[in-house]
Specification:
By secondary structure, the protein is α+β, with helices and mostly antiparallel strands. Strands 1-2 form a two-stranded antiparallel sheet. It contains five helices and four strands. It has a domain of about 100 residues.
Length: about 140
């Protein structure tokens, strides 16, 4: 990994730690949260901004679900305002530029995986080849 990517990934908690790090946001997640580790730093920064804004405005914002859909991260929540929805829209757009497996922004494409029909993933060239040649993704 490049120094830039190492710095981006450094300090970002694993998603399993998000409820401890952001207890107010993850108090009653009713649809779950899961996505590739390459997006964890992006989601960490997003949750940090949402929690800060919610605390400042004395809002009760709750994450309902975080998932991958159509090659991008999707965040669903309750109690948000336009500012938070803007943060989410930006994170969703940026996720299409970041490999969901390794976190690099180099040679990233959002497209279907061969042998998986309409399954769309945002992957670097190296991660796409690895997935296509692994048993999990082969025909």
């Amino acid at each position: 990994m490049s120094k830039h990517i190492d710095a981006w990934m450094a300090g970002a908690p694993d998603m399993s730690d998000f409820p401890k790090k952001y207890p107010e946001l993850f108090e009653n997640v009713y649809c779950g949260y899961s996505c590739g580790v390459g997006w964890h730093p992006l989601l960490h920064k997003l949750c940090k901004q949402i929690q800060h804004h919610a605390e400042r405005k004395k809002m009760e914002v709750r994450i309902a679900q975080i998932k991958e859909k159509f090659g991008g991260v999707r965040v669903y929540l309750d109690g948000a305002d336009d500012y938070i929805y803007g943060l989410i829209a930006m994170a969703e757009d940026v996720s299409s530029l970041i490999c969901e497996d390794c976190g690099t922004t180099m040679n990233v494409e959002c497209k279907g995986i061969r042998g998986k029909g309409s399954w769309i993933k945002t992957l670097s060239g190296a991660c796409r080849i690895r997935r296509q040649t692994s048993r999990q993704w082969s025909k």
